[in-house]
Design a protein that fits this description.
heterodimer; A: mainly beta; seven-stranded mixed sheet; four-stranded antiparallel sheet; B: 113 residues; 11 strands; globular
């Protein structure tokens, strides 16, 4: 186990609703990244937070937003849910520099399975 | 366009044999490449990281090679066991000063007893 926890484990929402997913990072890690993984695909990068600031964003619309708190835990918010948002949402914590300058290993949580109907 | 390619077909091998998985990329100049293992319904687990100036890295039964000329990484599991059955993902940074990993879709490995 990595020490990264996510809640809830599973969630079912209706199209148009809003959802908040939560992540607690591994102790000592100040960076959290969020990924979306559709069935049979690799994780797609949504965004990353470093010390409470957004530090990079993938090709996702603004209705995907996030927060990082002073204790480095994080939230992913998705507004106006669409059917295609159904996926496994993964949170990964890291501490940049553990693999060398700028390079880091990521430790993933178990994910939240979101189903939009 | 930038692509990370992993074989979408499952790799079936017999227990005890060496499994070799391939990760090819185009239009990237990564500073590093990582390999992760993912079991069904679970998050990926970090296995190995290899930097652009390294040719080979080993960890127990795992070996990774990185050829920046061929734009390819090979991931080997020696003396494979049924417990090694999982999906293996490669990830590399998109370059340009960003070290955020971008993932391939993964290759499923099935080790038969």
């Amino acid at each position: 186990e990595t020490g990264v926890t996510q809640s809830p484990t599973h969630l079912i929402k209706t199209r148009g609703q809003q959802v908040t997913l939560r992540c607690s990072s591994q102790s000592g890690h100040n960076t959290v990244s969020w990924y979306q993984q559709a069935l049979g695909q690799g994780p797609q990068f949504i965004f990353q937070y470093y010390r409470e600031e957004e530090n990079g964003r993938g090709n996702f619309p603004p209705r995907f937003s996030g927060l990082q708190f002073p204790n480095y835990s994080s939230e992913l918010n998705v507004n106006a849910l669409e059917l295609d948002d159904s996926a496994l949402y993964l949170c990964a914590s890291s501490s940049p520099g553990t693999g060398g300058a700028g390079i880091y290993e990521q430790y993933f949580g178990p994910g939240t399975r979101l189903t939009v109907t | 366009s930038q692509k990370i390619e992993q074989n979408s077909e499952a790799l079936n091998i017999q227990e005890g044999k060496t499994a070799t998985l391939t990760c090819n990329y185009t239009n990237y100049s990564p500073a590093y490449l990582q390999w992760y293992r993912q079991d069904p319904g679970r998050g990926p687990v970090f296995l190995l990281l290899i930097r652009e100036n390294e040719k080979e890295k080993r960890k127990e039964r795992l070996k990774v090679t990185f050829d920046t000329t061929l734009k390819q990484s090979l991931f080997h599991i020696t003396a494979s066991q049924p417990a090694d059955s999982a999906t293996y993902l490669c990830a590399l940074d998109i370059g340009g000063g960003s070290y955020i990993p971008t993932f391939g879709r993964g290759t499923s490995l099935i080790v038969h007893p």
